[in-house]
Amino acid sequence: MGAAGAAGAEGGVAGLALPARRGKDSEMRGYLIKIAVNAAAIWVATLIVPGVSVTASGPGRTVLSLAVIGALFGIVNTLIKPVVAVLALPAYILTLGLIAFVVNALMLKLTSWLSGAIGISFDSGDFFWSTILAAVVVSLASMVLNAFVQDDDD
Length: 154
Prior knowledge:
The protein is mainly alpha-helical.
């Protein structure tokens, strides 16, 4: 089979192969994995940081609450954090990026407020020190957990 035939079989144009398109199942699995990683990272923060808590009436409800909080945290980080990062660009430059800890704490505090608005008890702590420490723990835990999760983008 010639180059055009081989490319046609893969859905590309003569000699150029198009990347394989991810299916809806794969995309949904990716979202669920991200939610699970966020939920686990927030759970780790509740274990380590005093003042950070998720309160529910049993282990099943706690896991469900963590899953909803993980989803909310993902939405906040996807929609709001980029806008805040652009607006805070001068502060990122002046602080050599250390303002990122404060921005992450703000995103965690916003997630806490949103979860309270829908009836889930998530307290990210007193704003300054415990919330910043919680944001650091969530970031580190997410980084470690994401190292073990297979990425379908490759």
